Amino acid sequence: YLAPTVTEWRLRRTGGVPCDDLEAVCLFDGQLMEVLPRVYRFSAYQEDTLVLRGVVDEYRAEVSERGRLLTITGRGMAALLLDNEAEAVEYQGATVGEILRNHAAPWGVQSGTCRDLQCAGVYRVDSGSSQWQAVSGFTRYVGGFLPWFTADGTLQVCPMAGSGVHRSIDSTAAVTDCSVRFTRYGILSEMLVKDKSRQTSQQVVNREFLNLGGSRRQVLYTPGVSTLAAMRYTGEYQIQRSMEGTRQVELTVAGAFAAQPGDVAWVTYPPLGLTGGYDVVEAESRGGSAGETTTLTLEERDHVDI
Questions:
Q1: Interior CA angle at 205 toward 208 and 189, to 5°?
Q2: Could you tell me the pTM of the whole model?
Q3: How far apart are CA 169 and CA 178, in angstroms?
Q4: Among candidates 116, 87, 46, which has minimal Cα distance to 257?
């Protein structure tokens, strides 16, 4: 079924979490009222290019002073893994193929590029975890990266950063808004990992953040961890996770779909002293009577971590 004429829309791409999402407002003449309750998937196109395929979450038909309108909202195919809970399970020497067969394929998720990963020890999926957490926890633990979804809904088991195209944003680009954000809250200065069963502990410190006056300690109990090296890895892993998304640039340019997650943006913006390469981690495009824009969330490439 083809949706009625779209009057305004918003589409956000992240590739992962938070989930890609779409909201489209259409003119409505009532012809689809009987069909809409049975619609559960959508494909959104910009001219002839597929920009998002996903799950329909809600539709709303209304008659008001704005006229007769139909609003459709939905999320990308990552929703299938986010919405379904995994059973608690413990794997010994798990491979990425085994994880995908058990936690992605049963929910209708197709896989594309896939790195050959295997866990040397035990990998656990805790009770209450989503299928997304089961898959992403494995790739993060074994490979050090998060998987991601393409616009057509294919799961990519490889790093997203740098997977797209290189784009230039300089004085010739129509930048309407730009901001730089550094968030200190949430960054760990110290991680104490304790193994109750073996009565051992490992302290990992974030020296750079401590030198900047940071103070946030967390204690993690991990029964059954066999080596101090593994405990140190756990502490370093938690510190790295605490720093994700703490340094970001957000800028808005004229035109829709100026970039996509995975692209590399080479930015020159003198008013805020920005220059260099940035990874696009989120792209939100909007369209309506005021025109079309893209708001990009960027993270600096090869920056010095705190």
A1: 65
A2: 0.87
A3: 12
A4: 46
